[in-house]
């Protein structure tokens, strides 16, 4: 059974570097190396907190901050809330004011709501909906990884022309859809074409903020849920 262990207090790992003597190219090279090393460190889930900060001074009045955290403690929605509070607090301190304490819903309230929910109706629904499926549709070319293999990441950015973007937006409006639904439909066709299967099953992440918890839209934590599509 999953267990969440909340520590009453923890010391924030904090590192500082002074790179004012290096030129811009050298600073960027150091920063790229720092990111790679920091990512390789990972986290020990038994040791709180699951985040750390590195502050680099690059000029007399310029700093860069590397803020590393584990996905177990925040989701994408929460990051927006954290950055908003960070910049608000920063401006308050700059103007000589004491930071105002923010009031937000505790993640504990969400856990309490979650524990009150009955899982039986949901289980019956998904068993009926997914009848006949034994596994998700395999990704084309996906191979099992050994425990000691190194996962390498790459980014591919594709920019759609303005006219194509406008055409897609007009199409989804006409058919009362969203761009997200259109992308998922396209992904379904890609999986079907490359796997030769007609019944496609994959996971899609939802915000999880639809729970009946007061102020959940302002709460920080991991609320996301992955549902089969």
Automatic annotation (TrEMBL):
Q: Could you tell me one molecular function GO term of this UniProt entry?
A: catalytic activity
> Domain of life here?
Bacteria
What Pfam families does the record point to?
Answer: Condensation (PF00668)
Name of the molecule in the record: Non-ribosomal peptide synthetase
Q: Where is the Condensation domain?
A: 2-229
């Amino acid at each position: 059974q999953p267990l969440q262990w909340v520590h009453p207090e923890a010391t924030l790992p904090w590192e500082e570097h002074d790179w004012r003597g290096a030129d811009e190219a050298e600073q960027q090279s150091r920063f790229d190396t720092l990111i790679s090393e920091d990512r390789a460190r990972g986290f020990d889930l038994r040791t709180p907190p699951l985040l750390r900060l590195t502050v680099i001074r690059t000029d007399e009045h310029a700093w860069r901050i590397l803020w590393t955290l584990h996905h177990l403690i925040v989701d994408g929605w929460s990051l927006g809330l954290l950055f908003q509070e960070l910049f608000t607090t920063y401006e308050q301190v700059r103007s000589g004011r004491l930071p105002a304490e923010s009031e937000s819903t505790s993640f504990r309230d969400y856990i309490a709501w979650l524990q009150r929910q009955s899982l039986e109706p949901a289980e019956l629904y998904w068993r009926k909906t997914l009848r006949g499926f034994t596994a998700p549709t395999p990704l084309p070319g996906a191979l099992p990884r050994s425990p000691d293999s190194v996962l390498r990441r790459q980014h591919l950015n594709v920019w759609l022309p303005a006219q194509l973007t406008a055409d897609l937006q007009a199409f989804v409006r006409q058919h009362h859809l969203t761009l997200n639904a259109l992308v998922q439909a396209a992904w379904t066709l890609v999986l079907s074409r490359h796997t030769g299967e007609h019944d496609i099953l994959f996971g899609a992440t939802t915000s999880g903020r639809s729970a009946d918890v007061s102020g959940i839209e302002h709460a920080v934590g991991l609320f996301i849920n992955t549902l089969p599509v």
